[in-house]
Write a structure and sequence with these properties.
Elements lengths: L1 E7 L3 H12 L4 E5 L25 H14 L3 E4 L2 E5 L5 E5 L2 E10 L3 E3 L15 E2 L2 H4 L7 E5 L3 H10 L5 E5 L9 H9 L3 E4 L2 E7 L6 E6 L5 E5 L8 E4 L3 E3 L29 E3 L11 H23 L2
Parallel strand pairs: 1-2, 1-6, 2-3, 6-17, 8-15, 9-10, 9-15, 10-11
Antiparallel strand pairs: 4-5, 5-6, 7-16, 12-13, 13-14
Helix pairs in contact: 1-2, 1-6, 4-5
Protein name: Thioredoxin reductase
GO molecular function: thioredoxin-disulfide reductase (NADPH) activity
Cofactor: FAD
Length: 313
């Protein structure tokens, strides 16, 4: 079957694309290699998405998106995309389940936070370990939080977290920050922020929730354990070591920026006609569910216009 559009990735951007494309009566296929929803499924409460009350979990919100897609006739396939051929009018998607063809493609593979790679990091993600201050900072109101990183994002997010946390300590592996001077100055002047230099976390500690961590000083070799205040019992660890866009499938054919994100215009168009990108995979200033769904809607509408113009009778 020749689809009007194939969407690669079933996070919020992909599901939004699927919803809008199917409602426009396009033959639509979403291909996802893993579980639906992407990063949002690791969020216990979605409080910053319009209309979603705090008791709505990321998994529940995604389930509603999937139900909407299915109601409008979106096809979904669990498969791993192995390679793409995007140069001709008919785009080819090669997967471990076979070859699929489409008149247009929307790339929604997302980006993943760069991990520290230390013991218990994965197990305690969403239980005190976070990679998104906007998503999770309010969960740590009046608690102590540690922020790992030394770039613009780490310090900006650290400053944001001080609106909620009692104290924010930034752990940086060097003795000077890579962030812009203006941001560094703002952080240093913040009375709720403290700084640990030349150090990194070796292990995260906790039984169900983060209760402490093992810290190593890279210059002196000193290793010590830092535990949560006994009156709190828990703490937050926010990791801002950068993101890794999932662009390995298209790195030799789609225009990327220096960090590997897909370059698009405001209509989600890439440098290849008929190929669009939406969500965290593209160059943008804010990576949140609300912007991902907006990207997906725009991409689907533009894909519909492209198909009508190039394949319409």
């Amino acid at each position: 079957m020749l689809y009007d559009v194939i969407i690669i990735g079933a996070g919020p951007a992909g599901l939004s694309s699927g919803l809008y494309a199917a409602r426009a009566k396009m033959n639509t296929l979403i291909i996802e290699k893993d579980k639906n929803g992407g990063q949002i499924t690791g969020t216990d409460e979605v409080a910053n998405y319009p209309g979603a009350m705090p008791e709505v979990t990321g998994t529940e919100l995604v389930a509603r998106m999937v139900e909407q897609c299915d109601a409008f006739g979106t096809e979904r396939l669990k498969a791993t995309v192995e390679r793409l051929d995007l140069q001709n009018d008919i785009k080819k998607v090669y997967t471990d389940k076979g070859l699929y063809e489409a008149k247009s493609i929307i790339l929604c593979m997302g980006a993943v936070p760069r991990k520290l790679g230390v013991p218990n990091e994965i197990e305690l993600t969403g239980k005190g370990v976070s990679y998104c201050a906007t998503c999770d900072a309010d969960f740590f109101t009046d608690l102590e939080v540690y922020v790992v990183g030394g770039g613009d994002t780490a310090l900006e997010e650290g400053i944001f977290i001080t609106k909620f946390a009692r104290k924010v300590t930034v752990i940086h592996r060097r003795d000077t920050f890579r962030a812009a001077k203006s941001i560094v100055e703002k952080a240093l002047k913040n009375p709720k922020m403290a700084f640990i230099y030349d150090s990194g976390i070796k292990e995260i500690l906790g039984d169900g929730l983060v209760q402490g961590f093992v810290l190593e000083n890279f210059k002196t070799g000193e290793v010590k354990t830092i535990m949560a205040d006994e009156n709190d019992g828990i703490m937050g660890i926010f990791i801002f070591a950068g993101y890794l866009p999932e662009t390995h499938l298209v790195k030799d054919m789609i225009e990327l920026n220096e960090l590997g994100y897909i370059q698009t215009d405001e209509n989600m168009k890439t440098n290849i006609p008929g190929v669009f990108a939406a969500g965290d995979i593209r160059v943008k200033s804010l990576r949140q569910v609300v912007t991902a769904t907006a990207d997906g809607a725009i991409a689907a509408v533009q894909a519909e216009k492209y198909v009508d113009e190039h394949f319409g009778e």
